[in-house]
């Protein structure tokens, strides 16, 4: 794996850490949007946007939603926007499958908090990359993930392969992850790894920590397999293309 450097230790309390890296050519094969498409690329970590207490409240939303289903394998997904929920080896639409029961699971406050957190992350990304927050749109998939050490039962459970978001999802321009549990306390393994040509740069999850980066090949990455415990996070993704924008989830 070459040299491994830790960008953010769990014990760090980072206001703002940002590393600029040259943009890949991935953005050239898509329509450019002035004032939004990355011209400055890189990756950042901050512990100063979302509080631990907010992260715990958001984790409880994920736990309640995922208690309705859950994958047979190591990775379960809950997407409040589309309603996609892991159930066994498949996905169901939470809203269709559970109907009015959803009102017993989630509250308006849950969705208001989710919206607020999403907006703050969007504003921070815009600020760091010098773009207008209003030029960015939430895009799919934006989802909660719950990972544990159970072996993979389907390809959806194989989350540890290196990948590039812009290649996997053409609409992505900026990717963010909000961690909802603590590395080495709630789970082992499961660190986030940027795979650079000469070395690996890791981010150790910590509740309330936001890791964000431009979505092109300049940020090839993977997640280590979770060895023990349970890792919760939410992936929140942004596009510059209004045609690929999605709205916030509504109860």
Automatic annotation (TrEMBL):
<dbReference type="GO" id="GO:0016020">
    <property type="term" value="C:membrane"/>
</dbReference>
<dbReference type="InterPro" id="IPR044862">
    <property type="entry name" value="Pro_4_hyd_alph_FE2OG_OXY"/>
</dbReference>
<dbReference type="GO" id="GO:0051213">
    <property type="term" value="F:dioxygenase activity"/>
</dbReference>
<keyword id="KW-0560">Oxidoreductase</keyword>
<feature type="domain" description="Fe2OG dioxygenase">
    <location>
        <begin position="140"/>
        <end position="242"/>
    </location>
</feature>
<dbReference type="Pfam" id="PF13640">
    <property type="entry name" value="2OG-FeII_Oxy_3"/>
</dbReference>
<dbReference type="GO" id="GO:0016705">
    <property type="term" value="F:oxidoreductase activity, acting on paired donors, with incorporation or reduction of molecular oxygen"/>
</dbReference>
<keyword id="KW-0408">Iron</keyword>
<protein>
    <submittedName>
        <fullName>OGFD3 protein</fullName>
    </submittedName>
</protein>
<dbReference type="GO" id="GO:0005506">
    <property type="term" value="F:iron ion binding"/>
</dbReference>
<dbReference type="InterPro" id="IPR005123">
    <property type="entry name" value="Oxoglu/Fe-dep_dioxygenase_dom"/>
</dbReference>
<keyword id="KW-0223">Dioxygenase</keyword>
<dbReference type="GO" id="GO:0031418">
    <property type="term" value="F:L-ascorbic acid binding"/>
</dbReference>
<dbReference type="InterPro" id="IPR006620">
    <property type="entry name" value="Pro_4_hyd_alph"/>
</dbReference>
<keyword id="KW-0479">Metal-binding</keyword>
<dbReference type="InterPro" id="IPR039210">
    <property type="entry name" value="OGFOD3"/>
</dbReference>
């Amino acid at each position: 794996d070459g040299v491994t450097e830790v960008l953010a230790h769990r014990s760090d309390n980072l206001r703002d850490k940002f590393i600029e890296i040259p943009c890949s050519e991935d953005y050239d094969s898509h329509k450019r949007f002035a004032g939004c498409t990355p011209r400055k690329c890189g990756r950042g970590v901050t512990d100063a946007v979302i509080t631990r207490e907010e992260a715990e409240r958001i984790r409880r939303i994920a736990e309640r939603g995922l208690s309705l289903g859950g994958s047979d394998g190591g990775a379960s997904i809950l997407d409040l926007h589309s309603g996609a929920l892991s159930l066994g080896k498949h996905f169901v639409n939470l809203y269709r499958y559970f109907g009015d029961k959803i009102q017993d699971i989630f509250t308006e406050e849950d969705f208001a908090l989710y919206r607020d957190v999403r907006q703050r992350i969007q504003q921070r990304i815009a600020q760091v990359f010098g773009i207008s927050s209003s030029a960015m749109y939430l895009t799919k998939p934006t989802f909660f993930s719950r990972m544990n050490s159970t072996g993979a039962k389907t390809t959806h459970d194989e989350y540890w392969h290196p990948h590039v978001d812009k290649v996997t999802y053409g609409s992505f321009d900026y990717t963010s992850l909000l961690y909802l549990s603590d590395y080495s306390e709630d789970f082992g393994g499961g660190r986030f790894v940027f795979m650079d040509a000469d070395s690996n740069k890791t981010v150790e999850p910590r509740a309330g920590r936001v890791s964000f980066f431009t979505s092109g090949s300049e940020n090839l990455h993977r997640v280590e397999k979770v060895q023990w415990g349970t890792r919760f996070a939410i992936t929140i993704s942004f596009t510059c293309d209004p045609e690929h924008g999605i709205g916030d989830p509504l109860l």
